[in-house]
Specification:
The structure is a homodimer of 192-residue chains.
Chain A: H1 4-20, H2 27-34, H3 38-44, H4 48-73, H5 77-94, H6 101-107, H7 114-141, H8 150-171, H9 174-188
The structure holds a DNA duplex (30 and 30 nucleotides).
Chain lengths: 192, 192
Amino acid sequence: MDNDTAIRIRESAHDLIAERGYFGFSYADIAEVVGIRKASIHHHFPSKVDLVVATLKEYRARLAEAAGGLNNNVADPLQRLRLYVRYWAECVKSNHRPICIAALLSAELPALPEEIQAEVQLHFKYLLSWVKATLKEGAASGSIHLHSSAEVETQSFVAQVHGAMISARALGSTEIFTSITKNALERLRPSN
Amino acid sequence: MDNDTAIRIRESAHDLIAERGYFGFSYADIAEVVGIRKASIHHHFPSKVDLVVATLKEYRARLAEAAGGLNNNVADPLQRLRLYVRYWAECVKSNHRPICIAALLSAELPALPEEIQAEVQLHFKYLLSWVKATLKEGAASGSIHLHSSAEVETQSFVAQVHGAMISARALGSTEIFTSITKNALERLRPSN
DNA sequence: GCATCTAGACCTACTAGTAGGTAGTCTACT
DNA sequence: AGTAGACTACCTACTAGTAGGTCTAGATGC
């Protein structure tokens, strides 16, 4: 499952989901990108559901890795959130996976197979829990000011980032992503 | 174009897009809901693009109507935004078109036909311009406090509402929509 | 009053193309 | 020899869309 071809299939699945959503890509698209035949994909991922679940699991693992890295290497919790936002700003700017695939799939959620729905939900729960822990730590150390509860500020922060991705895509504008997220971070500054 | 069947087709298209996105529904699905044959849909809407463009135009017309109604009948600009949010809270709660189809389609945007992309963009521009005008009026009359520019506060407000819809869908939770949007409105209160 | 014409609405039957998925085979490496 | 990984060739189900016919209601001509 960790061999090169399987990884390339999974990575191009991620690219394609970020571009078009679950129903917007096919095994034929992936076959063309990876340079193998459609049937060969089934050898690595028996069904489309398996492929997308694996893609989401990997995506979540990468988030966990990145979040852990920030926790360990960046002392200031607010700065961690700034770097999180900066990562996405780069994605939006370069148009490389410029949207969170869990947020995108969430939009299509009722039509998706249950196993995928569950993975999407797990991603949201993980992201919310990391942001919440970060906000709480910042509030305790004084680097972050919370206007309301950590729970609600967490939900609002995540919603703003996701909403910013959507607006940026709709308007074809990197700037709108930057200005929304800058505003969201500004609100968390202690002097406010 | 305004006869009963055409309307029913367009309305069920709206339902289905809100549930599944552009690629997630077919003429066969609509035929089943409306109770006519697939081919008959083409009589009213020659292509899927025509149908979705018509659905988005109608959706925007309804938004314009509702926004105009709020402008005329509700004196306080902040209260207009509260009612806008309340409308969506009801949709989320009742699970009747619980997501803005322009926001949903924006997620899939790069894969959509250009005419649809253009309509999605028009919806965003209209919504942003109405919210901005409302915020400005509120700021002038003192019923709304703007922490930053009207432009940025507008973008943030809209992003929070859209992000709240996404989170609510992902977690199957009406409460998260309510708490995010309540927080967004709270920020605009003059006492803050 | 009655036949005829027209047009909209809907139908059956079909097209070419694509979807996800399967069966069975070949090849190269361990 | 066994196995992983790729292949060709195929399947069924479904997609948007088309061709051409039927039915009905209203308007028109005599």
